[in-house]
Amino acid sequence: KNEVEQSPQNLTAQEGEFITINCSYSVGISALHWLQQHPGGGIVSLFMLSSGKKKHGRLIATINIQEKHSSLHITASHPRDSAVYICAAPGDGGSQGNLIFGKGTKLSVKP
Amino acid sequence: EPEVTQTPSHQVTQMGQEVILRCVPISNHLYFYWYRQILGQKVEFLVSFYNNEISEKSEIFDDQFSVERPDGSNFTLKIRSTKLEDSAMYFCASSVGYSDTQYFGPGTRLTVL
Question: How far is B80 from chain A (nearest CA, A)?
Answer without folding.
Answer: 23
